[in-house]
Amino acid sequence: MSADHPTVTQSLPLLDTFAFSQSSLQAYADCARRFWLAYVEQLPWPAIEASPVQEHEAHMRLGSTFHLLVQRAEVGIDPERLSDGLAAPLAGWFSAYLRHRPTDLPTHFVEVERVLTIPFPNAPAGSVGVAGQPPYRLAAKYDLIAAEPDGRVVIIDWKTTRRRTDPATLRQRLQTLVYPYLLVEASAAFPWGPVQPEQVEMRYWFTAAPSQPVTIRHDRPRHEAAHERLHQLLAQILAGRSEADFPKVADTPINRKRFCDYCIYRSRCNRGVMAGDVSEVGDADDFFAVDPDTALEFTLEDLPELAF
Question: N or C: which end of the chain has fewer CB within 10 A?
């Protein structure tokens, strides 16, 4: 891996305690202006991300409830008790989980809703940036990590999207880079670690296609490519000084449909007023809406006991 990392300075007006995540990095990769508005300015904007808004918001709430049900089932609460009184579509989703939960997962160590974090840029333990400032951190919250001692590790991400996301699209998502990379780098702190990249796989499981999960295997070349890509993004972000250094995505019909139509800042950026149709997208990751009160998804104050 390259030893060249961006020097951490305080020129970019991020909080000293800011922690990067796959969401904030994806925001920058999709549209640098999104990152500036959401994570630097933390700008509230009175717009909806998809229409009809009631349908979209209801689906998001159901997704959160499904994740909570699965979390409780994974820690041993009786599934019959959990499923009692559930209505559609939640009842169908949970039933699909019970019928199609992968049977080949490691069983010795199971981590549920686990947050991992490492220094970012990833430097030797105890290193600091200029002027004694600590590096930023990279953090992720995992739906499920299943591991064997000195063996295979499987990351599961439960998806309640309206349709199964195309595997090629998932391979391009920063989540697919961040989650395995971060796990390998943090794994020495676990009883089942450390692990090598070849021992890790990322698996997306869909309520819309419970028998067709998408599995993406990690390996050394992918790990090194992830390292370079993530640190390249970090260097580009930290090189910015003002809003002008964070340009909008190019104004093309494809970009408007893919990015702007589902971004709460579209009217501020003169990229339209009406929200995109929720039925035309299958993945919540296609939307971009940030609650300013929680925009900084992870901060160092949240993570002192989780920092590896």
Answer: N
Alpha carbons within 13 A on the beta-carbon side of 132 = 0
CATH code of residue 86? 3.90.320.10
- Model confidence, pTM: 0.85
Q: How many structural domains are present in the chain?
A: 1
Whether residue 13 lies inside any domain: the answer is no
Domain extent at residue 174: 19-302
Closest CA to 97 of 215, 175, 179, 213: 213
Residue 199, helix vs strand vs coil: helix
Instruction: Identify whether 285 is part of a domain.
Output: yes
CA angle 113, 117, 122 (to 5 degrees): 150
